[in-house]
Structures are given as structure tokens and as C-alpha cells.
Inverse folding.
């Protein structure tokens, strides 16, 4: 069975600060995918990134970066120089090869204080 | 490209009543998902369709929930009779095909059962 844990329920930071959202996952499968989604107040889930289990390279996209470490089963997400528009609930999710079902964590509510 | 469309956005019903939600996926997407998101939790898959066939409905409470995708395009999810614990946001998502793990989500239908 798959499990995703996001221990941080809520985080508040002042604008322009850096913030890291933690994600720890469990799976017995050797091939799997990890995701981050953003859920703004409007409700839809916005896809941010997908990584497969064979690619442990960290990734940077603008102010966003992701750190994938198989040794600790973690896939953490960092926002650099946070902005008010980053305020949302962020979900980490997992799927396994051949099964597209997403297993989500409970989410981290991020509030950026102007 | 139009996104995943869902209606209604909000619905309030009394317990034991019935309700139906509608979803129109992105044009050309063969795979369609319904997720249930209870307040404070991550989304949980209810049912997955591939064209008009069911791939996974293992977490669908079949005594009260039903879903169909008769022509392999839009889909309806029905609850009959509703219980208080069905209060949640119901999210529809679609992807191009099985194995395409990038799913696009609609804005959801927020159901309140009183």
C-alpha cells in the first residue's frame, strides 16, 4: 500500500522569505512517480511537477525547486523569495507504474504574509 | 485548450436526498477520474474510467454511489441517498490515456449535506 505524509499542516512566512514543504512517502514498488499539486482558493488542483523514481536529479523551475532523496523517501518542495500569490494548499502525491491512481498527502496550507 | 468542466460548483442537500454531479473532461482525454476531497484531507480516488469502461472502483461506496461514462466522454457521479459524511468536494480529472500520469483537474463540486 502507498502512503504520503505531509507533517506540516500549516505554514506562514513573510513575503520574500524562502519556505520548504516536506513530503515523505512509502511504497513497496520500485517504479513510481511523485507529484506536487497546488490548490488555490478557487479549488482546482494545479499540476506543478512529476518525478519518476529513477531520476533523483533535483529540479529548479523559476522560484520553485524540488529535492528528491530515495534514501530518506522524501520529495521536498522549496519556494524561494515567496510571494503572496504562492498562498495555497500544496499536496504531495504518489502513483505507481501501471496504476495511475494518485495517493495524496493531507496537504500543507501555506500563507504568505505581505 | 479548455480545461475540465464540472457542474454545479456548489450543492446543498438534506440527508437521504439524491444528488448528481457532471464532468466534461478535456477533449480527447480517454481516462477520467472522480476524487472525493473531505475538508482537511487530500483527495481520494473514487472511480477511474478508461473510455466508457471502469478501471478501478475499489473505493467507491457502491451501496450509495454510482458513476457512468456512457459515451466515453462526459461523466456523471450520483449519490443516493446522501449521508452527512458525504459532505466534501468532488473533483473530476482527466488524462490523455492510461500511463499518462499527468492528470488535469476541474474546480470541483462542493457538496454540503445537512
Amino acid at each position: 500500500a502507498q502512503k504520503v505524509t505531509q507533517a506540516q499542516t500549516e505554514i506562514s512566512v513573510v513575503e520574500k522569505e524562502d519556505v520548504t514543504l516536506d513530503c515523505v512517502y512509502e511504497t513497496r514498488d520500485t517504479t513510481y512517480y511523485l507529484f506536487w499539486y497546488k490548490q488555490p482558493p478557487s479549488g482546482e488542483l494545479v499540476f506543478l511537477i512529476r518525478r519518476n523514481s529513477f531520476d533523483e536529479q533535483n529540479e529548479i523551475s523559476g522560484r520553485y525547486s524540488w529535492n528528491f532523496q530515495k534514501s530518506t523517501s522524501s520529495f521536498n518542495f522549496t519556494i524561494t523569495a515567496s510571494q503572496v500569490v504562492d498562498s495555497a494548499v500544496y499536496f504531495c502525491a504518489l502513483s505507481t507504474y501501471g496504476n495511475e491512481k494518485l495517493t495524496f498527502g493531507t496537504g500543507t496550507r501555506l500563507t504568505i504574509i505581505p | 485548450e479548455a480545461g475540465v468542466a464540472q457542474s454545479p460548483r456548489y450543492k446543498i442537500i438534506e440527508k437521504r436526498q439524491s444528488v448528481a454531479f457532471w464532468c466534461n473532461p478535456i477533449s480527447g482525454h480517454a481516462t477520467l477520474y472522480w476524487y472525493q476531497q473531505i475538508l482537511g484531507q487530500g483527495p481520494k480516488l473514487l472511480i477511474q474510467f478508461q473510455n466508457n469502461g471502469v478501471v478501478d472502483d475499489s473505493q467507491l461506496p457502491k451501496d450509495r454511489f454510482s458513476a457512468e461514462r456512457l459515451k466515453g466522454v462526459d461523466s456523471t457521479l450520483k449519490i443516493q441517498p446522501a449521508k452527512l459524511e458525504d459532505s466534501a468536494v468532488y473533483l473530476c480529472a482527466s488524462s490523455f490515456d492510461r500511463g499518462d500520469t499527468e492528470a488535469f483537474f476541474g474546480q470541483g463540486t462542493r457538496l454540503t449535506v445537512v
In short: The mean pLDDT of chain B is 93. The two ends of chain B are 37 Å apart (CA to CA). Chain B is about 0% helix and 50% strand. The CA atoms of residues 40 and 88 of chain B lie 10 Å apart.
